Amino acid sequence: MAAVSLEARDLCKTYIVEGNSNNVLQNVNLKVEEGEFVSIMGPSGSGKSTLLYTISGMDHMTAGTVIFDGEDLSKLSEKELTKLRLLKMGFIFQQMYMMKKLCIMDNIILPGYQAKLKSREEVNKRAEELLRSLGIVETADRDITEVSGGQLQRACLARALINDPKVLFADEPTGALNSKASMEVLGEMIKANEAGTTVLMVTHSEKVAAHSDRIIYLIDGQIKGELVLGKLRSNEAEGATKDPREQLMLRERKLRLWLDELGW
Question: Is the pLDDT of residue 141 over 90?
Answer without folding.
Answer: yes
